[in-house]
Amino acid sequence: MNMKDIFLSNGSDKGVTGKYPHHYHTVYESVFESRRNEPIKILEVGIWKGTSHQSWLDYFPNAEVYGIDIFTRVPPEDVPALQDERCHYIKADSTNASVQTLVEEAWGEDIKFDFIIDDGLHTPTANRKTFENLWKYVAEGGSFLIEDIWPINKLTFDESRHSWIQKPAYSSHFYDMFLEALPEGYIEYDCRKASGVPDSYIIEIKND
Fold first, then answer.
1. Which residues constitute the domain of residue 152?
2. What CATH number is associated with residue 112?
């Protein structure tokens, strides 16, 4: 199956299903396809019900899938994907520097991931801190992908009035700080037109 169908079969809103379907299959199909059958390591921050974890297991038959979550909404024993022998997870806050100690205690000081996906807390400050804490674990030739970004400098007037981003945490100041923390040459994927969802936006940072 292709990425779109896999997301659909698992009920993941990364595709075209759910209350906020993000249409990310249009991004991930191109980013992941060339490495689909390789024995890669992929880490996702934010597990929740595990629909995207199951999608990675289905799409990458030879991959080891890792996850980080604070598990306040769904306990890990209630997430079917986490019971798979190719899945590994820790309870941690990716925005806290202590996550590095927990990662290395669980998976080794030399652990590297071919892909890291940030689907955790979607504020500019949380995105920045998660990137700063986990970027060191991206393997050479790998990528760090940050999902569900509110591109504050690109929002239309109606999008900027969305109730989700009326809080001070989504100010232009914090968004600028987030962008300034990223290396030059990052790639932006804007899926808002296809999805109709104002935070259907991904930034990819490659470790070339």
1. 3-206
2. 3.40.50.150
